[in-house]
Amino acid sequence: xxxxxxxxxxxxxxxVCRLVKDGCKVRVLHRRTSDFSIFNRVAKYxxxxxxxxxxxxxxxxxxxxxxxxxxxxVNDISVIYHCAGMVSFxxxxxxxxxxxxxxxxxxxxxxxxxxxxxxxxxxxxxxAIGRADHELIIDERVxxxxxxxxxxxxxSKYGAEREVWRGIxxxxxxxxxxxSIILGPGEVNSxxxxxxxxxxxxxxxxxxxxxxFVDVRDVVNIMIKLINGNxxxxxxxISSENVTYKELFSYMAKYLHKPAPKFAANGFLSExxxxxxxxxxxxxxxxxxxxxxxxxxxxxFYAYSNEKIRQAIxxxxxxxEKCIADSCRFYLADKNND
Length: 338
Prior knowledge:
Blueprint: E1 2-5, H1 10-21, E2 26-30, H2 37-45, H3 50-56, E3 57-61, H4 67-73, E4 79-82, H5 94-114, E5 119-123, H6 152-169, E6 173-179, E7 181-183, H7 194-201, E8 205-206, E9 210-215, H8 216-228, E10 234-238, E11 241-244, H9 245-256, E12 263-264, H10 267-284, H11 292-297, H12 307-313, H13 320-337
Parallel strand pairs: 1-2, 1-4, 2-3, 4-5, 5-6, 6-10, 7-9, 8-12
Antiparallel strand pairs: 9-11
Helix pairs in contact: 1-2, 1-8, 5-6, 7-9, 9-13
């Protein structure tokens, strides 16, 4: 049986649905407070019915911070896909990020080793690769350096990777994937997919930076190919294209039939924006859409190489424009059905 953590999140939901369509028995961990709305939308996108899901999916309530419960649910598992984790760029979330991403991963690695799990796929992030000082293109050879340029999220994901490497040293067959910013159809209210909703409401400014982006379906395909191909003791950047934010928002505007943003948000405007968001959070208690870290990251030109994964499994990525087109099509259909 296959175990998936984070199976109610965007990536985890797509992975579970793909495994179900492949006829695999899947045990999905969820917390008592888990929101199943993302999974339900992704299942709908994949045309899966409740009877099909119930036939193949075993839902287990468990927390990765509970090592004793993990030992129980991992007992008869052959493959683990570890998608669970916390993503936050809020100033006060550093300790919680470390607790969930590092300690939670350590608990799962320990349970996998104790139960002699055959194969383990860990979902990390390009944030854990580190930042190249001189290289224009970041690849897997970039060495992590402690720096105040690293976000709290990046530090926690790097710490989680160290736990996976420990597991590998102790005999676990594991592989690490480092997706860039994940986009794709099936969700419109959380994570990076919220950008489509923002553009639909009207976006006039774009930030001058760039980043790597990848379709969620590519991430799922590659994770399964790596496990089925017995490729272990490696880490792979999973990124389709390096795209400027101007290009990204223009694609979204094109397929939403909205005007594309025309004005570049300079550093001064970005600094003002995150401060206003922080004030709104302080006054009303709502989570800020933009933080100091995200505002500054959006002005930097990041670029990632996918050469290693393309050579390892001879893979062709979905173009980002097609990813955006499919995502906007789903968003508009979902919007019209509300």
